[in-house]
Design brief:
Helix content is 47%, strand content 8%. It is of the alpha/beta class.
Length: 321
């Protein structure tokens, strides 16, 4: 009987950027794969740095479906918020098609709500708030569709570790090894709760020392600078317009209108999607026949299953960039 198959789709977060091993990246998905099954799961990482929802739908999804995975993770959307072409309706349509495709194959789907890049970079409010609204809209879509398709959904944006700088790499956009291990641990706990992950969870402790400050500064001066230039060429003109609009509303005390507009756009995007033929029960995920299903385990504190919503907590202000 074949081993469990796990395929990961997404962008640089899933590619493993921030968790270097040898000449490449490892990341949370590879760490999770090692704790899924015995024999060791067949793991394929299709994630590519810079990928948007369009790339996942048009390029990564066909390759993933051809492998007929038992488990598939789809973490994407942050790069969409950093583009001048941001369109929440198209994002919702693409994600709906991706999630539905895996559900039809009987694949256990992993998804996550992610923090906005403005907060992680410590951008000032007039620049960070527009990006935060975009990410909240994406998270609303992801959360709603995850419930619709019975996905194993991680509320990563609500985890306490998100605001711990020790969990992040020098670029402030990607987790370091510790952060990648936190994501893997949380997904493993939920999969173990469903009887899918049967091997021990990955260790929360790093295997390698964090990069030296000199290495971090070198990255920021080379690859990091190149990244900023690429994003500025695409996003900066629109972001400046959004900042002007944000400033005008702040002066008038009407920023609530911008929040409402973003929320309404997300709701409209979801309302425009076709209703699936059947609504899967969240706990009904396919477990390969050759593997036993152990008794369910309790979830660690702070982890939620699809449909459960966290109680907002006050968080410390992000460190200034």
């Amino acid at each position: 009987m074949r081993p469990l198959r796990y395929v990961a789709l997404g962008d640089s977060l899933t590619e493993g950027v921030g968790d270097p091993v040898g000449d490449g990246w490892r990341g949370w998905a590879a760490l999770l794969a090692g704790g899924l099954s015995e024999p060791t799961a067949e793991f394929t990482n299709l994630a590519v740095s810079g990928a948007q929802t369009r790339d996942v739908l048009e390029v990564q999804l066909p390759a993933a479906l051809s492998l007929r995975p038992d488990v598939a993770s789809v973490l994407v959307g942050v790069n969409d918020t950093l583009r001048g072409t941001f369109d929440i309706e198209k994002i919702a349509e693409r994600l709906d098609k991706v999630y539905a495709s895996f559900t039809r194959q009987g694949t256990c789907l992993l998804t996550a709500c992610l923090p906005d890049p403005g907060t992680m970079l410590g951008l000032p409010g007039v620049l960070g708030s527009p990006l935060a609204r975009r990410q909240r809209a994406v998270n609303t879509v992801v959360h709603t569709l995850s419930e619709r398709y019975g996905a194993v959904h991680l509320h990563a944006v609500d985890d306490v570790w998100i605001m711990d700088r020790a969990m992040w790499s020098s670029d402030r956009l990607h987790p370091g090894e510790r952060g990648h291990r936190q994501i893997a641990l949380r997904f493993h706990a939920m999969l173990a709760h469903r009887g899918i992950a049967t091997r021990p969870a990955p260790s929360p402790e790093p295997e390698f020392p964090p990069p030296a400050r000199s290495a971090s500064l070198w990255w920021l001066a080379t690859a990091g600078t190149a990244w900023v230039v690429r994003r500025c060429n695409d996003l900066l003109p629109q972001l400046l317009r959004l900042a002007v609009d944000e400033t005008r509303h702040r002066v008038k005390g009407t920023c609530g209108r911008l929040d409402l507009r973003a929320a309404q756009s997300a709701s409209a995007a979801l309302a425009s999607l076709p209703v699936p033929e059947h609504r899967p029960v969240p706990e009904s995920v396919r477990v390969p026949e050759h593997r036993p299903v152990p008794g369910r385990r309790s979830l660690p504190e702070g982890l939620l299953l699809p449909g459960q919503r966290p109680v907002p907590q006050q968080r410390p202000e992000p460190e200034a960039a």
